[in-house]
Specification:
Chain B: Belongs to the GINS4/SLD5 family. Chain B: The GINS complex plays an essential role in the initiation of DNA replication. Chain B: One of its GO terms (cellular component) is GINS complex. The complex is a heterodimer of chains A (218) and B (249). Chain A contains eight helices and six strands; from the N terminus they run ααββββαβαααβαα. By secondary structure, chain A is mainly α. Chain A is elongated, with a radius of gyration of 27 Å. Among the domains of chain B are: 121 residues, Methane Monooxygenase Hydroxylase, Chain G, domain 1, CATH 1.20.58.1030; 48 residues, Ribosomal Protein L9, domain 1 (3-Layer(aba) Sandwich). The chains are: A mainly alpha (218), B mainly alpha (249). Strand 6 of chain A pairs antiparallel with strand 4 of chain B.
Chain lengths: 218, 249
């Protein structure tokens, strides 16, 4: 197997983190350093106390060696998350807008740069609450699942990944049932036509119809 | 993507308002325009749209997208040969450059290069796993065999050969001769060659506004705007995916 069965079902947590690490974030460097030429382009120059944008993985790496301070993104503040939480809690509200990788980014920042996030404890709790409200919403969304499409904007990558197995298999199952149901409808009307065309006394073979509820009722 | 700009819209003056997304039909959105925040949101949405056209995607982002698409799509997609070649050239170049750098910089460059290599590896492995699942189908169908790289095609053929040899040795040769085929198609449309299920469910996000889109002939079209997320059948959106209008999640 070239990839594990878990990977075939969706993404693993480390993979989601990997994606999140490619997002850029502002840092305040603590040491001078020339610009760096990375594969994706140039970052820097690092001139304290000027802010500069770097990919998250680099920010975390520099932070761990104490070479920078990470500027927490504006959405990762108590005030903002609280507002979102309140909105999210309202009945019939839709999902609020959050970055694609908000859970992973928040997790990484709270793990590696807790001192750069204000109210980190409160934010932790709030993120947990927010996540739970959103989870219960996705669960309610599950009721609306149908075999054509379901719109669910602003779900983050981790949230989608979480519901993927359940939603995907249910979706596929609904689709198969739908196909069976329409096939059954088809054979029934087909039968009716046949009955009208031919004499009623003509025996009809049960083998003719692939799946029809009537053949099970007899 | 500049996350700060993108989400600033949420700091509107009216905390009670859901600016959030989804199924708000265009008409009702207009009626809400009196709301100051809505105006701001609309503005930032327009900016997003402009951004998207201006920004040239770099090779890494392209491969990243190809990778996530490949992971979620049920069948095999177009091989990103040129992108990988570019990236590997860059990797070699970076490795050369690294030698003359101080330790810290060399460390950073090494990590950067390792991240790229990881992505390339994972991308190729994903494709190999798909090839192993439906090797015969991909080799037989010209639409699919065109999507494979030469190496992948050789791999697929080798895989088919090995598999056939294995089943022949272990039991097929003991069966009556007329039961020995491995790619028979029966009268009822049952085939021995497995195929990917193109109708399976995928999550997709709209990259550039498609407009009204008919998901199913019997249903009303639905507006597909940038950043909308849908769960739907792969077969419905696979053309949009080829055009790069949607990405899988």
């Amino acid at each position: 197997m070239a990839i594990s069965s878990r990977q075939q079902e969706g993404f693993t947590m480390p993979e989601l983190e990997y994606m999140a690490q490619c997002e850029s974030i502002a840092i305040v460097p603590l040491y001078r350093m020339d610009r760096l030429e990375l594969v994706r382009g140039t970052v820097g120059p690092f001139r304290p106390p000027q802010k500069t944008e770097v990919p998250l993985w680099l920010a975390v790496m520099l932070k761990r060696t104490n070479r920078c301070r990470i500027v927490a993104p504006s959405w990762l503040s108590y005030e903002h998350l609280y507002k979102l939480y309140k909105r999210e809690e309202e009945p019939d509200s839709l999902f609020t807008k959050l970055p694609q990788h908000y859970l992973e980014i928040a997790y990484m920042l709270l793990t590696h740069a807790e001192d750069d996030v204000e109210d980190s404890q409160a934010i932790r709790r709030l993120l947990q609450d927010l996540r739970e409200v959103r989870q219960s919403k996705t669960q309610r969304g599950f009721e609306m699942l149908n075999p054509t499409q379901l719109q669910m904007d602003n779900l983050s990558a981790a949230e989608i990944n979480e519901i993927r197995p359940l939603f995907r298999h249910s979706f596929d199952m609904l689709r198969q049932l739908d196909a069976l149901a329409s096939a059954a409808d088809g054979t029934q009307s087909h039968q009716l036509q046949q009955l009208q065309q031919y004499d009623d006394s003509q025996p009809y073979s049960e083998l003719d119809d692939a799946f029809s509820p009537s053949s099970y009722l007899r | 993507m500049d996350t700060e700009n993108m989400y600033e819209g949420n700091f509107g003056p009216n905390p009670d308002h859901h600016e959030s997304s989804t199924a708000v039909p265009a008409s009702s959105q207009k009626t809400q325009l009196s709301d100051a925040m809505e105006v701001e949101d609309n503005r930032s949405a327009e900016e997003d749209e402009e951004d998207e056209e201006d920004v040239m995607e770099d090779d890494f982002s392209m491969l990243m997208r190809a990778w996530t698409n490949e992971r979620s799509a049920p069948d095999i997609l177009e091989y990103e040969g040129a992108t990988i070649e570019n990236l590997m050239e860059l990797v070699d170049f970076q490795l050369q450059k690294m030698k003359s750098q101080p330790a810290l910089v060399a460390n950073i460059l090494k990590m950067d290069v390792d991240r790229v290599k990881y992505l390339v590896r994972s991308y190729l492995r994903t494709r190999l796993s798909k090839i192993e699942q439906h090797a015969r189908h991909y080799v037989n169908e010209p639409t699919y065999s065109e999507r494979l790289s030469q190496n992948e095609l050789d791999y697929a053929k080798g895989f088919i050969g090995l598999e056939e040899k294995h089943v022949r040795k272990s039991f097929l040769d003991q069966l009556p001769p007329h039961l020995r085929t491995v790619d028979e198609v029966s009268g009822e449309g049952l085939e021995m060659v497995t195929k990917p299920d193109l109708d399976s469910a995928v999550f997709c996000r709209v990259r550039s506004t498609v407009g009204e889109f008919q998901f199913e002939a019997s249903e009303d079209p639905i507006a597909m705007k940038r950043n909308n997320v849908f769960i739907t059948r792969y077969s419905i959106i696979c053309n949009l995916l080829e055009d790069g209008k949607v990405e899988l999640l």
